[in-house]
């Protein structure tokens, strides 16, 4: 956990990947998210790609509800590819921005959570897995909000277990949509991914809870200036 953070308005902000980690940017804290901090941001090509990915979310959800699995699968794959493309463009052409740092993980999380909820609703994924996933995300958001309200803002960095969890969730969603789109069954794979996703979801929630509790209990000590 960091002791302090000072924003440099002239330094480009790099978007932190890993929608499972809720780390919107390096050094991001909830108290830094304000209109003044977003002032001066501009639309870059990566930002436009991210916005298009946000627009894909309702399209993918609608295709799933209408059982248009081919379109849902293609939309999910396109969203995944666009996530890599906007990051590459931002790195290659130095187009990092605060707006992108906030939008990118939101788009990723919104897509994944929406797909999982619909899959649980139509019976393609067990409800316990969907509930566990949503509860874990809600726990993290509540922890960040509570720490901010208590004037002990916390910087939540993506942990390895969280990155692994997100990767497995993406693979699981792609496998299920691919099975439905191509009318094939990957029975040994899907149950294994479901079990692994459940274990990693619980493990990542526990890891973030431990990190948050350590931060809250040691905030007064760690916030003292170095001597």
Automatic annotation (TrEMBL):
Query: InterPro entries, per this entry?
Result: CDP-alcohol_PTase-I, CDP-OH_P_trans, CDP-OH_PTrfase_TM_dom, CDP_ALCOHOL_P_TRANSF_CS
Q: Which residues cross the membrane?
A: 45-65, 71-89, 110-131, 137-154, 166-186, 192-213
Q: How does it sit in the membrane?
A: Multi-pass membrane protein
Q: Which UniProt keywords apply?
A: Lipid biosynthesis, Lipid metabolism, Membrane, Phospholipid biosynthesis, Phospholipid metabolism, Transferase, Transmembrane, Transmembrane helix
Q: Which GO terms describe its cellular component?
A: membrane
The record's similarity note reads: Belongs to the CDP-alcohol phosphatidyltransferase class-I family.
PANTHER family (UniProt xref)? CDP-DIACYLGLYCEROL--GLYCEROL-3-PHOSPHATE 3-PHOSPHATIDYLTRANSFERASE 1, CHLOROPLASTIC (PTHR14269:SF62), CDP-DIACYLGLYCEROL--GLYCEROL-3-PHOSPHATE 3-PHOSPHATIDYLTRANSFERASE-RELATED (PTHR14269)
Protein's recorded name: CDP-alcohol phosphatidyltransferase
Source organism per entry reads Mesorhizobium opportunistum (strain LMG 24607 / HAMBI 3007 / WSM2075)
